[in-house]
Structure formats: C-alpha cells, structure tokens
User: What shape does this take?
Amino acid sequence: MQHSLIQPQKPDPIRAMGIIALNGMFDEHDAEGVIRKAAELFGDKLAVVSSFGADSVALLHLVSLVNPDLPVFFLDTGMHFPETRAHVEVLKARLGLSDVRTLVPDSRDLVRFDPDGTLWEGDPDSCCHIRKTEPLNAALEGFSAWITGRKRFQTAERGVLPHFELTSDDRIKVNPLAYWAEADVAAHKSDHDLPEHPLFSEGFTSIGCAPCTSAIGEGEDARAGRWRGFNKAECGIHFDVSGEIAPPQIREAPMLFKKGRFVTDPFKPLGENANLKGVRYVHVPLSKVKDNLDAIRQNPHPLGLLIEASDRVEDVAEDLDRFSSVAVSFPAFGDGRGYSTARLLRERYGYRGEIRAVGDVLTDQIGFMARCGFDAFAVANDATKKALEKGELAEISVYMQPVGLTEVPVGTRPFLRKPAEPVARRP
Amino acid sequence: MYRYDEFDLGFVSGRVGQFRDQVNRRIAGELTEEQFRPLRLMNGLYLQLHAYMLRVCVPYGTMNAVQLRKLAHIARKYDRGYGHFTTRQNIQFNWPRLQDVPDILEELSDVEMHAIQTSGNCIRNVTTDQFAGAAADEIIDPRPVAEIIRQWSSLHPEFTFLPRKFKIAITGAPQDRAAIRFHDIGLMAQENAAGEVGWMVYVGGGMGRTPMIGKRIRDFVPHEDLLAYLESVLRVYNRYGRRDNKYKARIKILVHEEGLATLREQVNSEFEEVKGGVLTLPEEELARIRAYFAPPQFALSDDRFDLAALKREDAGFARFVEHNSHPHRHEGYTSLTISLKPVGGVPGDATAEQMEVVADLAERFSFNELRVSHEQNLVLPHVAIRDVRAVYDVLNAHGLAEANVGQISDMITCPGLDYCALANARSIPIAQELAKRFGTAERQAEIGPLKLNISGCINACGHHHVGHIGVLGVEKKGTELYQLTLGGDASENASIGEILGPGIVAEAVPDAVERLVQTYLGLRKAKDESFISAVKRVGPEPFREAYLAA
Assistant: This one.
C-alpha cells in the first residue's frame, strides 16, 4: 500500500479553466465526439476503465469505433460473477478490442487485509480499495486521462458529472456517457445489436463483484443492487468531482485492537440521515435506539450500540441481545464511567457480544478495561498503537480483587487473586 | 500486622518496574509532562511548588520498625534528612529527584511499602484509629477489615478513574479518633441486637471548600457484605458523581444535590444486585486476615500510673504520661503518642534520626508496632506501663517528648505556601508562632484540651474545619490573610467550624487566638469543661465579639 498521507496536489487552475472550455464543446449526447477529442488530446496517455458490467458494452462499442487499440483496464477483483468473465471474452471478440488489460489486487494486500475473503462483508470500502482503487492507481501511472462509463442518472452523486473532469491526482477523467439516460443506453445496445451481459436479463442492471451485487426490484434505481444495505454508492475508484474522497484505509483513524492484534473494523460511522431500518455495521447511539426501537427491531442486519458516558445501560437492557457489538465511549482518559457500564453489560445483563472501548483509550487503561469486560479497543493514540503492536501493555500482572463473573471460580475465596492474562495474548 | 504474600509482592514489584520505565521515558523526553502526569500520580508522585513530592502509603497508619527505618534511610539518602507525616496517616518526602524515584520505590518494596493510590482519583489509603487493636474502648480491631478494603481497592479496575479522590475511614471504637464523618465513606463498628458486629456506614463527609458531615446511609452492614456494599456505593458514585466541575466532584456533593434518600435508594438497589456475589467475604477469609493482626503476647501485669505520685517526683514526665498516654485494652499496658509538634518545629515532620529512634523504641517496647495518627503524630501502641519511663527518657534525649497531645500546640497543619503549589498562605510559620505563644506547659495546663488546626488554603488539608479553633489562609489582593473558625469537631460529635469574621494578617493571629482562649477561660463553668464543650454550650457569639474586638 504505497499511498501517501500527504494531500494530493491541487489541480493547476489554468488546466481547470481548459477543462471548463472542453466541457462546452460537445453536444450532451455526443459520446463518440467526446471520445475522439480525448483520443486526440491524450494520444497514448489515454486509457479506458470498464467493469464489463450490464451497460459497459455501449461505451466499449463507442471506444472501438474511435480506436479499438486503446488500452482497456478490467479490474479483476477475484470476486466477479463467472458470467462477467465470459462477457469480457465475448466483447473482446465482438468489438475487436486488442488491448484489454486485467488488473489484479496485490496479493500482499489480500493476505494482510482480507485473509479469509470476507472483508466485503464488514468493510466493503476497504475491500473495494484493495481490489480496485489500489490496482487501478498503479495501472494509471503514466496515463494522463481515462475514460469511464459513468452517467448522471445513476446516482445522486453522479448528477453533476461533466464530460471532462479534472481529478485531484491531476488526471482527467472522461465521461462520454455523462448525459445518457437509461433509455439511451438501451437504445444504443439495441440499435447496434450489442451482446447483453448474461445477468442483465435476470434483473441485474448494474453489475460489480458478486458478493456486493444483487438484482433490483420494480421501480428501484439501476444501481440499487450495488452494496445493498451498505451506506455506499461508489467503489472508490471514482473520486468525487472535487477529489475529496480519500482511500478508506487511510481515512480510518482509530484501529481496532481485538484478540491480540489489530483487525479491520467492520463498523462504520453512522450517517446523519441513515435509515435505521436498513443500516448495518454501525453503532447506533443509545438515545437513538430508545427513540427508534421499532426500526431497530425490524432491521435484519448486524448492528452495534453506542453507549455514551452519561447513558444508562439499563435503558436498553431488553434489546442488548440484538446488538453484535457495544461501543462504550470514554470521552476522556480520566472519565471512568465506561468501566461500570461494561461490568453491568457483562455481569448484570449477561451480554456476550463484543464490547469495545472507543474515545480516549490509552495504554494504561487497557488492562483495567479488559478486566471490566472489554474485548475490543478502538485505538487512535499513536503511542498506544505502538505499545499494543509490540505487546507492551502497561498493565498489572496480578489482581488484588475479584471482578466479574469469571475471574474467581465459584466457591473459592473472594481474595484468591488471580494472575492477569496479558490482553495482547488472549486467544 | 499484615505480611505480603506472593501476590502483594508481585503486584508491587511489577508497578515499580513499570514506573521505572515511565520515568526513563520522561527523562529521555519521550513523554511530555502532560503525558507523564497521570502516570506519576498513579505512583504518588506530585509536582509541588519547588520540586517533586513523593507520598508513601502507610496502610491504615500501621507499620513496623524495619519500615520506619527504611523511611529514615530514604529521607537521608534521597531527601533532605526528614519526612512529613500526613493527616492521611501517610508520609511525604518533599525533595526527591525524579531520577531517584524508581529507586526509592524499589527500596520501599523491599519492606512491603509502596506509593500506589496515594494520589489520583481513586480509592486512597484507608485510614483508621491510631489506637486500633489497642484502645480500651474498642469493640473490634478494625485493621483486618481495613486490610481487606485495601486489597479490594488496590487498582480496582472499575474505580481507578472516579470523578474525584475517594477516602474511606474506619473505626472499631465508639469514640471516633479517625474523623470518619469527614470522609467519603466512614465506617463505625456496631453491635446489632443479635450481638453480631458489623458496620454503620456514613457517606458524603469531607472538608475542602465545601465541608460536609457524613450522613448515615445504612445502620448495619455485616462483615460478609461489606465489600459488596462498598462496591455499590462506589458504582453509584462512579456513574453519577459530577465530572463537570472538579470542585463539585466529591461524593459529598452528590449526596447534597441528590439527597441522602435518593442516594440510599440507588445504593440499595445496586446492593441488592451484587450482594451474595463474588465479594461476599467468608468467615474463614476474615479469620485468615485477622490472624495477621493477632494481639501480641502481652505480659500479665497490674501496673498502673500513679499520676499524683509522678507529679510530685517529675512534673515533666507526669505531663507526658497525662497527655501522651492512651488507655489500653490490656491491663498493665498503654499506648504512647510521640508528638511531632515540638514548639518551633514543623508539625508532622520527623528527621531520619528521630525515625530511627522511634523504630528502635517500637522494637524494644512495643512489639515492633508503630502507628501514624491522622493528627500527624507517631504512636507506640503497646507499651508496658513499667517501660514508659525508659521510653520517655529516650524520647526526651531526642527532642521527642513533647507532652502536648490533644493540647493547643498539637496542631494539624498543612505544608502551606512554603511547599504547596495550591496554597494561598503560609501555615507553618503561623503554627510556630502559636506554639511559641501557647506552648508552655503552664499555659496548656491552664487551657486544657483544645484542637487548633491550620490550612493554607480552602482545600483544608490542615483540617481547619474541624479544629475547635481553625485557621484558614486566604489571599486577598496579594496579601496573605487568615480567617478564624470556631467550634469544629472531628469526633463522633462531628461539627464544622463557623467563620468568626473577616481575615486578619499573620501577625494578628496569635492575639486573636489569645482573645478566644481568654473568652473561654472567662466563661467556662469549671476547669474540666473543655474548650469545645464550652463553645457548644454557649454558642459562638461571645467568641465572635472577642474576635472582632481587636
């Protein structure tokens, strides 16, 4: 992962002005004209990126009319439908594309971040990042511009898409189909008798990786089947117009320490207007849970609960089992209310899911937290991260008092003090 | 007394190693003072006005000769040859160098001592009656229970980041010598109708800027449930104590704002949940700990003091016996208080040589036992009456035979502006001036028992609120001024002193105290009506008039 934390350079304003001029040159639906201009401007510094999905054939057909030898990048995430792979071969032959390049993820990234291939489940952003964004970033080295198949109608975020777009990495993204409607695509496919993606007829109107793609129902948006249930609409290769979306791995400031190592955190921050019936892998604040009990109870997805220091765990005692993770907040190192909360969760309410400490979590507290029932720690403090990575915990090695249900076996003296197991080496 | 087992040893030496590493990182600049602060406070290391101050824990004020000798050694080797005994029955060293502190802690661990939890927002040293296990009026020796509380509270994972510090005091006697009603929790031994001994629980007492007398929250908690009950109180406090304002964060404010009834209800409902759980203290565990505190092998003796005879033979010795001895539960024995309040000295200070003298005396005459009192004196708890003369002679030869216990010159005094970063005014010079004025044997004999306490600021470390006369240092427009309070009482008849009037300058304090004393002498019914009894009988008005008459 060779990403720098340094802010990308701001685009050159003169070039930005040129882009604006370019965007005025073409009729909205003149996709072919846009591609020709791009080929003329960028020559061999131009590439095409295609998912070989449901609509890709329209763009690839137009590209082939201009120059079938343009390099076309296909992001083989390793998670595609077999139908997609077959479709790649069909289109190569049918359109005469001579330079389709398959990009694969860095195997070291897969080993490090997704050893068991389930990263998509909890953290689709990171999954896209290692499978798409990183390989593409590497492949685009040496290219000045790339052509995408994005269209304004697809999502709200894409609603402002221009033909030519200057991104924060100082490349130009070309969106020939920006103004095309769904019907335009369908008409183009039919006019030129282009082969459909095999899954299109089964209701798949937008096709990405198999785990994160589903068919859409009546009246749903074309992309509604992508990352269904996640608060996610883009995979990450398409930075927004201002280039503000940073790669997810870098955005994740706190790291989750669990079972002796840092793991990828499947939980995401809860969006402000998120639909509580449909969200997943977010910690919903206790006050929100109280106010929206029905929605929470109807929500079928994995959910977490956030308990602020001043919250009373008693208020949601009946619904605790519904949550797979409880985040207990430490607004400051010295605010010890969370310790009582965790003990109540474990000892009084028998909660067995993850209890994670979030907020001001420092080395010296972790031993205490573990004894009170915490088994995960969202760590933002660098020194603490380092200490945990090295297994150097500032913690006591013997306990002077029984705490919890399990530390002292039933029937033994309460002051049978038990040596502590270091948190870092817990199974 | 209690002896460390392998757990205690591992616990303490582990902490020493950890702190040594932290100090090294601080000295190397890897830790900023801000990052270092919570770490050093966990180990009793404060940053004072001029230097670091290390506060060493003396659990419930009990130690042996070897330990006191070690403190003497530390005073000599790492400090300026003395230490300062505190109202929390601990000892402070005022001039250690940071790089020496890990060595000091290591030396302490050699004699089963440490500085853990002598600062920070955690459960502090449990304090008790300095005559525990010796006093004639005692129902039970509170030290086994104090030790059990010490163990339970040591680095308690739930209660190490409380809203504020938390102090527990415990007494096994009906006469309260541990000021239990001025602690966050006060425990007083009680016998119930069935003849079982348990604990009456007071909560929410304290001094500081908002003095409060502890309120009775529960009449009787049996031994076996005591820890469960304490955990219930602490949990309610940890969850609901104020954290928005450090001056309103003690449990006394929670009691005051929520009301005793509400707090009691919360504690009771918590107690119902935790009662009968892992904290239930089995009788055999109590017996195991109690064995450490088994009374020494007292000799059979019917020796008594003949004070009248002593007075004829040696007035000085007689005064020492009269004031500094305390009735012992075993016939033929007494508890001797060694006053650390010599006229012109610094209250609570002891030099390394004095500590060694006292350690020797403890070994020779008090079954190797020593106590620190919350009045900042040392105690030999078990001295045979026939040995008192020998003890007195040794003390006398080392300037430790001041016969002023419970008298006006036996003042509790905080370090004040001479040492403390928080103080508004000096305390020690005031104490010295007052001792000079009132400290002669004749004057003290005339005045009788009178507690005079001095604090250099509103934090009240010198317990001025409970002085029969209290002196409080304040700062007005850059000048050190002193307010006098009247009628405070730390005993079982707890009361908080009333401020008599506007502050006065340091030079005027001895005269003002003089006027209060003269007022008392003029209105007491008889020579045996003590100052505080007279104040409680007539009220503050005559004293207020005298105070304002200057």
In short: Chain B touches chain A at residues 7, 10-11, 14-15, 18, 22, 35, 38-39, 42, 121, 148, 151-162, 227, 235, 238-239, 243, 273, 278-282, 284-285 (CB under 8 Å). The CA atoms of residues 48 and 116 of chain B lie 18 Å apart. Residues 135-291 of chain B form a domain with the Sulfite Reductase Hemoprotein; domain 1 fold (CATH 3.30.413.10).
